[in-house]
Amino acid sequence: MTIEQLVSVLKDVEVLGDTSKEIEFIAHDSRRVRKNTLFVCISGTRVDGNKFIPQAVDAGACAVMTEKDVTVPEGITVIKVKNIHKAMELCVPYFWGYPGKKMRMIGVTGTNGKTSSTYMLRDILRNAGYKVGVIGTIKIMIEDEELPIHNTTPDVIDLQETLAKMYEKGMDYVVMEVSSHALDMNRVAGCEYDTAIFTNLTQDHLDYHKTMENYALAKAKLFDSLSAPDLVKTGKTAVINIDDELGSKTMIEHTKCDLITYGIKHKDATLKAENVEIKASGASFEVEYNNEVMHFDLKVTGMFNVYNILGVIGAALAEHINPAIIKETLENFESVAGRFELVRQGQDFSVIVDYAHTPDGLENVLKTAREIAKKRLIVVFGCGGDRDRTKRPIMGRIAAQLADVVIATSDNPRTEDPEFILSEVEAGVLPALHGNFHEKITDRRHAIFRAIELAQKDDIVLIAGKGHENYQILKTGTIHFDDKEVAIEAIRGKLNG
Ligand SMILES: CC(=O)N[C@H]1[C@@H](OP(=O)(O)OP(=O)(O)OC[C@H]2O[C@@H](n3ccc(=O)[nH]c3=O)[C@H](O)[C@@H]2O)O[C@H](CO)[C@@H](O)[C@@H]1O[C@H](C)C(=O)N[C@@H](C)C(=O)N[C@H](CCC(=O)O)C(=O)O
Ligand SMILES: Nc1ncnc2c1ncn2[C@@H]1O[C@H](COP(=O)(O)OP(=O)(O)OP(=O)(O)O)[C@@H](O)[C@H]1O
Ligand SMILES: N[C@H](CCC[C@H](N)C(=O)O)C(=O)O
Ligand SMILES: [Mg+2]
């Protein structure tokens, strides 16, 4: 596409230089620039992308898009815009040919349960014979090909490039996590969702959204988008957890298309789970749809997973998937890496690695562990740095209320002092202790070893917060760290005396 064609979708734009050049790629990161790239200069929270123009030009950029007056080497075209984010939202999907309008798109939003739901949907759609791409916290999947990811929902440039790749490789469906940050920043511009799930709304990310109301309104944008004026596909459905009273009210207010609600408590839920049983071996429940009762005997457990599964059933039915395929797939679904994942090394106590990193996530997972625990429940957890500080004492309180042994440790401290984060966690732990045991061990590896050392026959050790992550982000840089690996090492050490 030529620069002239590309800028035709922009309004407030001034182009300095040759507009007949062909653009072959768009990047905002100078390290990803190649021949004939348009380099988009973004002033970020850490650095100003305009500073990297020389590197981008060296790497092959033939044009730059910027809000600033910049000096460029001769022959480089400058596209000057008023608002770089608005400009990207318009021209990047156009450049890639609107791939997010060509495939069926399922978006999942909510504080917790997004990754879990997308993985279940992927399996259902694949078993129904479709080619599926997935975008979310852990990685990008294009059928079986895996690519790394930096955000739960990538920015508009990375997202459109990924969607274009998926379209080119023949994906019928894209199932993706749509984070509140992404909705607020409009990273999903140019996407057209067909079915959207709302899992729940509980406290997180208040550092960014400031209030729960703003957080809810960011999520509601996904539901607004289902009835936007410029849609090209038909058959939109919102699938909403109606047991989440506050969140569902906002999401439903913003829904103007077909609606499927789900829940366990609410009497009017379209999909209402009955006879729910939570066992260590898995959850079971029944749900009625179109006057037929479907019975589910799952391998995953926990009330929270029953909710995730109800949302998934709703989305799959909205996409007209055969109920028999939905049932068979969900009954065989085992787990997502780092989500209530059992670490089995032949020890006589259970070790679970889980990604709970919000108050509600931690409460749910501790309650589930408590329901299936034969003896004591030992929890190792912490809170991330440079993230919502107000959740720290709340998570501390929940851990102290629900576990027998509480080991507070570091998560990803990022640029913060780990001791300071822990002091905020402990402000919640200490007043809530009721004769139960507590230790503060800043080093996460030591904390995991200590929990496993303390574990006795039939106890459960829950290592929460980092799930699948194989790194720890410290002030000094990112190091390799994997809760599961460390747990295995500790268990083996204990078994070998
Ligand atoms: C606050 C926020 O969202 N920041 C996002 C933002 O980074 P930033 O503004 O700090 O960018 P920056 O590092 O200052 O760089 C500015 C520009 O210089 C460019 N650059 C930089 C270095 C270089 O050598 N060359 C170069 O060109 C960068 O590519 C960028 O365009 O743009 C980056 C690229 O798109 C994002 O990866 C980054 O997400 C950071 C890592 C982040 O932690 N975001 C969190 C808050 C987030 O978005 N989370 C949500 C929800 C998670 C969930 O609950 O599931 C998510 O969707 O991930
Ligand atoms: N429906 C749910 N309600 C509450 N907690 C949940 C639910 N589903 C999962 N969890 C808990 O939250 C953790 C994270 O789950 P998952 O990764 O599916 O959520 P997510 O929404 O993708 O999170 P993120 O915001 O980091 O992308 C799980 O390990 C589990 O402890
Ligand atoms: N997507 C979430 C993940 C948090 C994971 C936890 N390990 C942490 O670092 O706080 C976030 O960026 O807030
Ligand atoms: Mg996720």
From TrEMBL:
GO terms for cellular component: cytoplasm. UDP-N-acetyl-alpha-D-muramoyl-L-alanyl-D-glutamate binds at residues 30, 151-153, 179, 187. This is UDP-N-acetylmuramoyl-L-alanyl-D-glutamate--2,6-diaminopimelate ligase. Residues 22-78 form the Mur ligase N-terminal catalytic domain. ATP binds at residues 110-116. Belongs to the MurCDEF family. MurE subfamily. The keyword ATP-binding applies. It catalyses: UDP-N-acetyl-alpha-D-muramoyl-L-alanyl-D-glutamate + meso-2,6-diaminopimelate + ATP = UDP-N-acetyl-alpha-D-muramoyl-L-alanyl-gamma-D-glutamyl-meso-2,6-diaminopimelate + ADP + phosphate + H(+). Signal peptide: none annotated. It comes from the Bacteria. Meso-2,6-diaminopimelate binds at residues 387, 411-414, 465, 469. PANTHER family: MUR LIGASE FAMILY MEMBER (PTHR23135), UDP-N-ACETYLMURAMOYL-L-ALANYL-D-GLUTAMATE--2,6-DIAMINOPIMELATE LIGASE MURE HOMOLOG, CHLOROPLASTIC (PTHR23135:SF4). A motif (Meso-diaminopimelate recognition motif) lies at residues 411-414. Its main location: cytoplasm. Catalyzes the addition of meso-diaminopimelic acid to the nucleotide precursor UDP-N-acetylmuramoyl-L-alanyl-D-glutamate (UMAG) in the biosynthesis of bacterial cell-wall peptidoglycan. One of its GO terms (biological process) is cell wall organization. Keywords: ATP-binding, Cell cycle, Cell division, Cell shape, Cell wall biogenesis/degradation, Cytoplasm, Ligase, Magnesium, Nucleotide-binding, Peptidoglycan synthesis. Residues 108-316 form the Mur ligase central domain. InterPro entries: Mur-like_cat_sf, Mur_ligase_C, Mur_ligase_C_dom_sf, Mur_ligase_cen, Mur_ligase_N, MurE/MurF_N, UDP-N-AcMur-Glu-dNH2Pim_ligase. One of its GO terms (molecular function) is magnesium ion binding. Its EC number is 6.3.2.13. Carboxylation is probably crucial for Mg(2+) binding and, consequently, for the gamma-phosphate positioning of ATP. It holds the Pfam family Mur_ligase_M. The gene is murE. Pathway: Cell wall biogenesis; peptidoglycan biosynthesis. It is found in: Cytoplasm. Its cofactor is Mg(2+).
